[in-house]
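#struct-queue
[09:14] JT: dropping the first one here, sequence first, then the structure tokens:
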Amino acid sequence: MLAVPARIWSDGLMAISRHSGRWTLEDRFNSPWHYLPVEIPPGSCALRVELEYERSGAIIDLGCLGSAGFRGWSGGARREFVITPGAATPGYLPGELEPGTWHVILGLHRVPGAGAEYCVTAEVSSTPGELTPGPPPEMLPSLSERPPPRTLPASDGRRWLAGDLHTHTVHSDGGMTVPELARFAVGRGLDYLAITDHNTISHHPELPAAGAAQGIALLPGQEVTTETGHANALGRIAWVDFRERPDAWLEATERDGGLLSINHPIGGNVSWAAPMKRRPPLIEVWHWSWLDTRWTTPLGWWLAWDPDAIPVGGSDWHKPGSDAPPGAPTTWVAADTPEPDAILAAIGAGRTAISATRDGPVLLRMGDELVAVEADGMILVGPDGPKARIRGQLAKFPAAVGYHRIVDLTGATVALTG
């Protein structure tokens, strides 16, 4: 890295430091992450960081480590952030600014052959209110009308809940606030939603209030995101350090009682390409990147990676016009109660099914039976191929080992169960 030494100015109430230089391909080969120090003196009440760099061919991610640990990540979604004791830019954690050496994290996601010039400016204020992260998200009124819940046959007093295990908000690169996304998901008839912003947990404190206001269970999650693959860490768990290897992600998630899912394993330049010594319990078999559901590529990857893994689905929703909407596909969960912890427990127990849409055909595994719902005229397919023509809106078949799915007469998968 070609760099100039950090320059520091101070007027007693505001300290400004600046790092600048040029990142090269050799810097990227040495490490994906680089750290620029910022001194936080006692009595500081706000930090503001701004990143500027040459955009032609370069993508540089942004994050922050406090002297006591992780304070936030926004990846390539933002070029600046503010952290104060009571509030922070989405993606970052508010709280006291502990004195000591902090670090701005720069992720060299893409560096062109000629390199990329950059400049990082850090402002540290000891004057309350001088640096602010902007207003908090507005709490929205609940929908006056919502689609009626769909009732599917269930056993043992459980209920099948419709949801989505992969969505994003403004806390990473999404376009909606947490309250906006909760309301949108309710309008699509979902009972639960996992919010899985990239490499951060800053959205977690907002979930209970937004979920209660809209009448939807919001599951805490984080999408651990790297060059070699993405994985959702689901549950009330601590921040998972994405700079570690995936085996460490699995250990950290299990230690806190969460669930780890391999995301979109066949997904273009974000396909899973990382080795692991052990297999996580979940695989996002169905993702919007399954562009033609007549293909069996995701199923083949699932069986090759771990046929015992629990299949789940996720839309990977970010903003209108960019991805499939929440619930496309829908992951059904047979839960004891419609609470986040009960939903996660049901997922971990393998009581899941996936359908292309919330209101389309569904295939459920219930004890020693497979139950096809609203799939009249379609075909039940097992691991060995087609098994039977489905007759009627509620059809039952003897359960057999292995995954099963419903296909239409073109061979496109419309529903799936493990």
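[09:21] JT: and here's the second one, same format:
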Amino acid sequence: MSDRSQLLDAGRPFAFDETREAEFTRLEPRYPERDSLIMPALWLVQEQQGWISREAMEYVAERTGAYHAQVFELATFYTMYHLRPPGKHHICICRTLSCYLREKQLLVDWLAANLDLVPGAVTEDGRFSLEEVECLGHCGSAPVVQVDGVFYEDMDEEKLGALIEDLRSEAI
């Protein structure tokens, strides 16, 4: 399990680019309770820079009128938010009961043995990151792996190895 409380500083102030600013402006009227705008704003941050830095959380707090602690709580609670730059290919493995009972740990162990990749880490070359997440909603076809938003069901070590090889063969 990764430690989601350690945040990285980007070392530079954050602001929405033109596209995300327009989307934020479009969303504002839909959220009369400003606190409800925190999660969509965090999603816009991640869409823009690939992860959510400490500076970006402060920016979201200012833009939504929320306390910094509220933004921090949401960003650290939900595993869909990346609190550090992910690898080029972000791998999510479900850690809930259905996947656990169907040997999801073998997949985590395979990644550790073959890529030196553990939950919460990024490979040295920056190509892969791994996160154990809550239910991915495919319990009937567990274990489930999600890579870059694409679901792979009934996963086993052989299928995972083939998937990783396909991803490795892509141009960098």
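[09:30] RK: nice, looked through the second one.
[09:31] RK: The chain has a mean pLDDT of 91.
[09:31] JT: good to know. Strands lie at 89-94, 128-133, 145-147, 150-152.
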